[in-house]
Specification:
Nucleotidyltransferase, domain 5; 6-stranded mixed β-sheet; 2 domains; globular
Length: 398
């Protein structure tokens, strides 16, 4: 069974084709700068890379190019026609309260995703445009929507409600939704397998340019750091995470426009805003090692925020089977994992420095054998999770 996974951004399309019998990616790529004069396409297959630069006007043209690449690149190409694709899975950022699991797309689903555009104006419109384009290019293939927010629909009201006028929730659905759900769900499932415990208590950290943490009790999400939007919670590459909302009122009174404030907290904050160096932790770390005090401070703030949430989630769980690191930073930044877990041995998390120093694309434990709570590094695979959901929903091969 061949499943195509599509992830549309504001001007990009990421894609992967999976052979689900082998649970293996057979081709994938990225189209960037959609709508600009010179779009860039990178396609990979069996270690081979194909690149081209031409104008891709819209998502429909982008999907058409993906199909052309999948059926022509390679000797032989992974598929010879669109008919060989059994289904298409789409990442959709916001499903609101409508979806607690992935679904086959129909008119009702399209309408619900459209309604959520006001909750995720930077993501859902692009997700929806890509979905519609794929349905037009591949009209005979079932389409599946996999929502970032679905995993967190199990959070109780005490965790997802804000202490704002209740009418805001009733009328505008102002509440905490949580994001990166597909990643958290994937690594939680892998942790359960590795621990030999089907329904563990976990704290999962997805750390990358976007960062979030999940609190999972008996295999079910009960809390998360992100909120109505992906801005809340941890320090991120360019996003502020938690901050006093009165800062917005203050900056507007000082003469800053609402749009400039929004741009500041979403695109000029986080590691970039604190360090003045970069949104990329690798660059910030290098600067800190060279004596840049602001860069060192950015790293301290990043780790402090994550450590604070570990403490909060430990209190919420009572007992925790494992803490899981994933995402670009979580999987690769050895120093950041150590900094976040530093001093937590009294809470039952006893880091093993030698284990933490290793690098692997396979999961590995980073705590001592007698640590009451284990800590693991588990590489995420959101696209494979989307492909699995798609395969499960569309049923046996046609």
């Amino acid at each position: 069974m061949d499943i195509l996974v599509i992830n549309c951004g504001s001007s990009s399309i990421k894609y992967k084709l999976y052979d689900m019998a082998a649970q293996k990616e057979v081709a994938g790529g990225l189209i960037e700068r959609i709508g600009e004069d010179h779009s860039q396409t990178t396609h990979t297959m069996n270690g081979q890379k194909f690149e081209r630069s031409d104008r891709i006007a819209d998502y429909e043209q982008g999907i058409a190019q993906i199909m052309s690449l999948l059926t022509s690149c390679g000797n032989p190409p992974p598929i010879h026609s669109a008919d060989e694709i059994d289904g298409v899975g789409h990442r959709v950022v916001h499903g609101g309260e409508d979806f607690a699991e992935s679904v086959i797309v129909d008119d009702r689903v399209i309408a619900a995703i459209d309604r959520c555009c006001e909750l995720a104006p930077l993501h859902n419109p692009a997700n929806l445009a890509g979905l519609r384009a794929t349905m037009k290019i591949l009209p005979n293939e079932p389409q599946v929507a996999v929502f970032d927010t679905a995993f967190f629909q199990t959070m109780p009201p005490a965790a997802y409600l804000y202490a704002v006028p209740y009418e805001w929730y009733q009328q505008r659905k102002i509440r905490r939704y949580g994001f990166h759900g597909t990643s958290h769900r994937y690594v939680a499932g892998r942790a359960a397998e590795l621990l030999g415990k089907p329904k563990p208590n976990l704290i999962t950290l997805h750390l990358g340019n976007g960062c979030s943490m999940s609190c999972i009790r008996a295999g079910v999400a009960v809390d998360q750091t992100m909120g109505l939007t992906p801005l809340e919670g941890l320090v991120m590459g360019t996003r502020a995470g938690d901050f006093d909302p009165a800062i917005i009122f203050h900056m507007i009174r000082e003469g800053m426009s609402l749009e400039d404030v929004r741009n500041g907290v979403e695109k000029k904050s986080g590691l970039l805003g604190l360090s003045g160096v970069s949104r990329d932790l690798r660059d910030v770390h290098k600067a800190a090692q060279s004596g840049n005090e602001r860069a060192a401070l950015a790293i301290d703030v990043f780790a402090h925020r994550a450590k604070k949430y570990i403490g909060a989630f430990l209190a919420e769980l009572g007992t925790c089977d494992a803490i899981v690191f994933t995402g670009g930073i979580g999987e690769n930044a050895v120093f950041m994992r150590a900094k976040i877990l530093e001093g937590l041995a009294p809470l039952g998390i006893d880091l093993d420095g030698a284990k933490n120093d290793q690098r692997s694309r396979e999961p590995f434990a980073i705590t001592k054998p007698n640590s009451r709570t284990a800590a693991w590094v588990i590489p995420t695979n959101e696209e494979l999770m989307i492909a699995r959901d798609t395969m499960q929903l569309i049923g046996p091969k046609k």
